[in-house]
Specification:
single chain; mainly alpha; three-stranded parallel sheet; about 55% helix; about 10% strand
């Protein structure tokens, strides 16, 4: 039921919370820490800003909240990317292939 997912992390390994928000069609405003830019694509699924750029995060939030069409477009794109790139149907075979490769070594 959120309009935006705000993820102001200083350090982040992957960005699972961003992926969960995007899968629900919620645009993200995040820092560019760790793996967040892989999940939250700046200008497509939300906005990313440098760690510590509070004014930039606030501006990005304001931009999304003031433009319903942009918010809907980012939410739709985010959901499509989350499903396409990170669904179990797509990820599990990659893990299996990786484990098989490692076991053969």
């Amino acid at each position: 039921i959120s309009d935006i997912a705000l993820i102001p992390s200083e350090m982040e390994s992957f960005g699972l919370v961003a992926l969960e928000a995007l899968a629900c069609g919620v645009p993200c405003v995040s820092t560019n820490a760790g793996g967040l830019p892989e999940v939250n694509i700046n200008g497509e699924t939300g906005f990313t800003r440098e760690v510590g750029n509070i004014d930039g995060l606030a501006e990005a939030i304001s931009t999304i909240l003031s433009d319903k069409d942009l918010a809907n477009r980012m939410g739709k794109t985010g959901r499509e990317i989350a499903i396409k790139n990170f669904s179990a149907e797509n990820i599990v075979p990659k893990y299996i292939q990786y484990y098989e490769k490692i076991l053969e070594s």
